[in-house]
Amino acid sequence: QVQLVESGGGLVQAGGSLRLSCLASGSIRSINAMGWYRQAPGTQRELVAGITSSGSTNYSDSVKGRFIISRDNAKNVGFLQMNSLKPEDTAVYYCNADVNIFWVGRRNFWGQGTQVTVSS
Q1: How far lies 15's CA from each of 12, 35, 46, 99, in Å?
Q2: Per residue in 64-111, pLDDT tens?
């Protein structure tokens, strides 16, 4: 039906930047909210940032002022620009999307995750 594929993760030094992308493909009529979550070893998955179809955004306190979420509705792609990265940002980052699918209806999907490692 729908696939979400993340890219852009990697290893970066503290203070550096990375840009994650999440490309949605399949029988997509439209995408409602999109979000980025992360999960470090031994912790629960947590919301990092979210964006509605109209562009309203929200951020966790831990990344506010450093990360920027955006999207391109025409291309069904979302982005997470991560600046001033800290070692505590190290985690697997997951894309999530609430999708309206042709002839099926509304469903929620997760990407496979991309590793972000920040060295001190």
Answers
A1: 8, 23, 22, 34
A2: 999 999 999 999 999 999 999 999 999 999 999 999 999 999 999 999
